[in-house]
Amino acid sequence: MIRFDQVSKRYEGGHEALSQLSFEVGGGEMAFVTGHSGAGKSTLLKLLGLIERPSHGVITLDGQNLAKVGRGGIPKLRRRLGMVFQDHRLLMDRTVFANVELPLMIAGTAPNERAKRVRAALEKVGLLAYERQLPATLSAGEQQRVGIARAIVAKPMLLVADEPTGNLDPTLAVEIMGLFAEFQQVGTTVLVASHDLPLIKRMKKRVIVLDHGRLVADVAAEEVL
Amino acid sequence: MQELPLNESPLLGESHPRGGRSRARPVASWREHHGWSALASLRRLMSRPVGTLLTVAVMAIALALPLTFYLLLGNVQKMGEALGQNQTVSVFLQPTQGGSAAELTAKKLRDRAEVASVTVRTPQQGLDELARMQGFSGALHTLDSNPLPYVLEVLPRPDAGADAVERLVADMRGMQGVDQVQDGGAWRQRLEALLGVGRRAVLVLAALLVIAVLLVVGNTVRVDIAGRSEEIGVLMLVGASRAFVRRPYLYAGIWYGLFSGLLAVGFAVLVELALAEPVARLGQVYAGKLQVDVLPPWLLAAVPVAAAVLGWLGARLVSAWQLRKVA
User: Fold this and answer.
1) Where do the structural domains in chain A lie, given as residue ranges?
2) Which of A89, A103, B114, B196 sits at a 20 to 30 Å CA gap from B100?
3) Contact B26 A108 (CB under 8 A)
4) Closest partner residue to A75 among B6, B11, B239, by Cβ?
5) How many CA atoms, within 13 angstroms, populate the side-chain half-sphere of residue A31?
6) Do A102 and B32 touch (CB under 8 A)?
7) What is the CATH architecture of B88-183?
8) What is the mean pLDDT of chain B?
9) Sequence-distant (≥ 6) Cβ neighbours of residue A68 within 8 angstroms
10) Between the CA of residue A129 and those of A89, A96, B5, B93, B249, what are the distances in Å?
11) Residues of B with Cβ-Cβ distance to A156 under 8 angstroms
12) DSSP assignment of A6-48, as one string?
């Protein structure tokens, strides 16, 4: 599903965020990307969403070379990804329902189908009762779950999350990670960037460890202790 | 909510490997988003009424100015035409010239090709006319004799060129027994030339004010987009195309244009009403020859439409440029 081949990313100003990174994540697999802050986790996820472009190397997503996706193709690619952000990026002036509905509006899904899917997504993250509220009235954990509902509502092939538990207390963090594991169980490929090592260890999934933009360890799920 | 088939929820069903776009209903969803964008942008405008009203008012004034000038120009032109209807050249004979001499001169003039008609007005007719004017009758009684000369009203043929009329006037000045020649045609030409300048000025003014309208809409939309850059960023991240992101701003431009066009028409009609009374009075002075020139209905209908197009264009230009910076 995801394939990085000798990928480097050098930002303007010379900082090299990723250097000659190669790895593969199969379809339906769930993997954590970890490392200290500045190790290149966020850059890796940004390359997948075409928020950034690599300086060198080839990234393939579901058989598609991302270098061949032009400006006009970016929206189409992003519709097939579900992205979850640490600061959840919700629209604060729209209801929970409208926030989750957004990807379906963009995709042009019919209204009754939209309502059905939005409610299913909110049900999944346990927020069905909050659909008419504004995000600001929810707790941080609840807001993050709205962000997750938005990411999964359009049934993405790949779910990508950047520090999704960064602002949450440990109990909530476990709950959120559990949600991601559930999506993997139904066939979605999941890639989560996190620096929370104890939590990652608990999840018993594959762990890709970065340090200064280089791959230093790639631990299979069975080997996580 | 409880009746939702949660266990076979669409989320946990088969995953769509090619994403969720329903290609079966592109037209329906496109129409739906247009409707949504139009309404959403209208609601946004209404949610800050003062700012919207100020923008619309500035645009409306910019649009109303050329309309008003056009209206004034039309009335001045009408006035010129009304005056032009009796573009006679008055030939004042010397006081020594009697009735027979006047008739002789008139005959000579009637023979000329460029002359349509010549009317002889006796000193008595002139005196009667003066007597009818208020304030003169008393003064006229003090006169022992009629001091007025014979006057020939010479009407050139309508198809006679300005040169021919000029030559005629020059010839008449040289004729024996002629004291003075008053040619109303000269100021008519001057008025015509002035109107030409006025028409050109209205065009230039309209062009400038069209640019002003574009700038006002453009700047308003620019500020709007800048204030919503976060929202736009989120939309882009979840896969919105540029066209999708832009649509509400284009509709905002259309609304601004449409409202300002309607308001401009309102201003212009007010000016029309304000002018109606004094122009009508002027018309009475000219014995009902003058009618108020009003803006034609097609123009009043075209202004809001054209303004909406302008608003759309301004929003389009700015949003293309502004969104390039966002993502």
Assistant:
1) 89-155
2) B114
3) yes
4) B239
5) 26
6) no
7) 2-Layer Sandwich (3.30)
8) 82
9) none
10) 21, 10, 17, 104, 33
11) 19
12) EEEEE-TTS-EEEEEEEEEE-TT-EEEEE-STTSSHHHHHHHH
Q: A106, A109, A123, A160: best mutation site toward chain B, by most B Cβ within 10 Å?
A: A106
What is the 8-class DSSP label of residue B136? Answer: T
B1/A128 touch (CB, cutoff 8 Å), yes or no? yes
How many CA atoms lie less than 13 Å away from A15 in the CB half-sphere? Answer: 8
- SS3 of chain A: helix, strand, coil, percent, to 5: 40, 25, 35
Nearest chain A CA: its distance from B28 CA (Å): 8
pLDDT tens readout for residues B216-250: 999 999 999 988 888 999 999 999 998 899 999 99
The pTM of the full predicted model, rounded to 2 decimals, is: 0.74
Interatomic CA distance for residues B259 and A54, integer angstroms: 48
Instruction: Please report residues of A whose CB lies closer than 8 A to that of B242.
Output: 75
Q: Where are the domains of chain B?
A: 35-83+190-326, 88-183
pLDDT tens string A132-185: 999 999 998 899 999 999 999 999 999 999 999 887 888 889 988 999 999 999
Distance to chain A for B242, nearest Cα, Å: 8
So what's the ipTM on this one?
A: 0.89
**Banded pLDDT at B152 (limits 50, 70, 90):** confident
A156 vs B19: CB contact, 8 Å cut-off?
yes
